[in-house]
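pasting for ref
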Amino acid sequence: ERKQLENGGQFINFRVSHSDEKLYGDLDPRFKIDSYNMGDDLIPQVEEYKKSLCDEKFEKIPNNFSPRSLRPTVRWWKRDDVSLEAANNDSTSAQLTFTQPRRSTKKQQSKDDVHQRKQQHQVSSQPNENKPKKQIDLESLDILTIDQVLEPLISSTYATEKLSKSQNLVNSTESIALLEAEIDFMIKQAMAFTNNHTKTADEIVVDSVLGLDCEWLPDAECGKGNPVATLQLSTRRNSFLIDLQHLCQASRTLNGSVGTDTDKELSRVLQKLFSSKTLSLVGFGIMNDLGKMAASFPHLPCFSYYSSVIDLQSISSIAIPKVDRNRFSSLRGMVGSLLRKRLDKIQQRSDWTRRPLSMEQLDYATLDAAVLPVLLRRLMETSITIERYNGNFFTTHSNLKLTVRFTPLEEKNILTTESELVEALVYHVPMGKVTNMLMQKMARQSWPASHATPPDLPKLVPAKSGPTKKERAHLRKVGPYGTDPKPKPIQLKDLQGNLDNLPLPGTLLGYTKDSCVHRVVGHEFMNTLPEGTYIGFNRRSGVIETTNAWMIFCNFGGSKQNPGKRSSSGFLRDGKDFIFNVNPTNYHGKSSERTLLEFVSSNHVAKNQDDKKILFFARDGTREKYTYFGLCECIKCFPQDSGSVDLLLNLMDYNHLVGDCSFSSDFKELVQNQQAISEVLINARV
């Protein structure tokens, strides 16, 4: 406290500015004891405090008076029948503060102790996104209705001329035409959004989505063996329930007929939507719905290809803090968390094969699809994580908007050669896998919608008796045993970093250097990495490089007692500058530390290195994730007697790191923890 006061700080009485008219036990005697708190029980302790005052210069900081609660707190298991509310409102008995009941097991208490020890070196003010929010009682919320999620029909559009209401049952040729009119309108509107340069890329995606959901007959296995009965599609104004059971023929084999005229017409209309590059489909666990439709109606080509698919579950895994993700694990929980409404799921277990469908079933099914675009919009508008991307969230995370293709597979598993040898065959599915649904074997392939070239179709190849997928992943790290060839590395220093698509400064990446490298070279390159290869670089070095950038890593060790291997590295000037120690003789002079030192020391840089950048990654300990702190430039070099060199680096993105954003406190905390440790050593060396 004395140090804070010397630096210009001052005591602030929050009971004046933030009073809730309640009594508390943790009173600070430096503030005036007001009428709400004063009592005979405080007189001895207040006198003791006055005697201990020693220094008026610093707001009379006590000399030997230990800061503690002036008024004792009664634990819940010792209190009488007087409730907490009565204790805080009744002036006659309001001399004690009662805590709320909180039973916990020894195991829970030990976890709390571990958590407290882990947080002892951190500042008390954490970003709001890292604090778990209060659990929502879904049963106490009002029921969500479709009128609350669909926008009213606008008189200037075709909607009032062709659609009499916002909910529409598609079970005839005439109603299919209405669906096509809505799809045409959405495609035309999406193209106008694309040509309108005032909208960000994320806003165009949110304004050009349709919600998708399916229903089928439930059973003890959640309808695993039952075909899709209804398909629901919803725009922001209209929700359609397509009666697939009535319009389409039942699932048939590949050698069967191609379907009726109604089948063909519906397939044509839906294919116009599903293959559109300007519209996207959004769902919750949508991959299961798409696979179910492809297996239910393999004779309809519309259900085999989807140009742009977005899954709310995948987005929430990135946009929602880990402590709150359990509330977003179901559609009902997501609706309650984002819209503060309760999604009634009673009709989910109803008979969806019975005709005609009841009004309750129609309301439930159309609402399930209509709420999906609303949830996507609310998630994009309220997530602090997504806000950091400045309208380029889907551009950065291209794997969140996927193109999906389903291919029915024939049951051929042997190959007879000319020598009458029988060899087992398996399907090779690039960027996908083989699934079984409704007794139908299908290949599901998915890739980022931004990719111009789709993967090859599945093909039969001779089966190989080798390690499993999990074993192959292990072998890529440690190398195989025996005479099998080791996986071949693609050297990082020969690759070019995708510097135009770097994460924002302050972004948490991962626990390993590989996670940082993957973000620098780009997800698209990693997805095209040939099987049996990996990115090769020295994972023990603090400096690694690509053809156009150096990546420097600093692991502070997480405590004052163990400041890390680079003890002479640290922040200066409140994080504006950073001292980084390099040793050109490390690894027999073959490390990137030598080439980095040559680059910053030379006045004549080679032409192929003119645009080479320095990227800075750091973390507060091995249990923390690496954070990307942006670009650096070297101001000066300080040679040391040991042969190493201290580089004085300036953080070019400092203003962004300390600006008005949610991760600025993380950066300030890291600087505060490490600057005091390293400042003395660094100044002495410099």
